[in-house]
Specification:
mainly alpha, 6 helices, about 75% helix
């Protein structure tokens, strides 16, 4: 398994001299494909937890479970903070990038391309709607 990003990047430099080495270093039998799958799986699980929090938020408001709604909001806001610190990118995206040259919107997560591409817009809007529902239920 590749020990560092430097080793993978170094293989890319070597491929300029010997074609095919970059592909071998990135997808070779050294376990890098396994590591990429592990990162994609972790990313997908974390994404599913975040989506679960976003989708549960309006239900928590309607049921007047405001403490639950506060925790769900805190979890989502914490994720927003992680993204903000990383200039809008998930740190797992950068980790996955070390193991592949692919850069499609879903190269780092097990999602359909269109969901990965519009993920922040879709679930950002749903989060805002959920927060408005909670606020409306709280003031009523």
């Amino acid at each position: 398994m590749a020990g560092s990003c430097r080793e993978v990047l170094g293989a890319g430099e070597a491929s300029a001299r010997q074609p095919g080495l970059e592909t071998h270093a990135v997808t070779g039998a050294d376990g890098s494909q396994l590591r990429l799958r592990e990162i994609k799986l972790a990313h997908t699980v974390i994404w599913a937890i975040m989506v679960g929090c976003i989708l549960a938020l309006p239900l928590a408001g309607v049921e007047r479970w405001f403490r639950v709604a506060a925790w769900l909001s805190a979890i989502v806001f914490a994720e927003c903070g992680v993204l903000a610190v990383n200039r809008g990118r998930c740190p797992l995206t950068d980790m996955a990038a070390a193991y592949t040259t692919e850069r499609a919107d879903n190269f780092d997560i097990y999602l359909p391309l269109w969901v990965a591409r519009y993920n922040k817009r879709i679930f950002g809007a749903l989060f805002v709607v959920g927060e408005i529902v909670v606020l409306g239920c709280w003031v009523s």
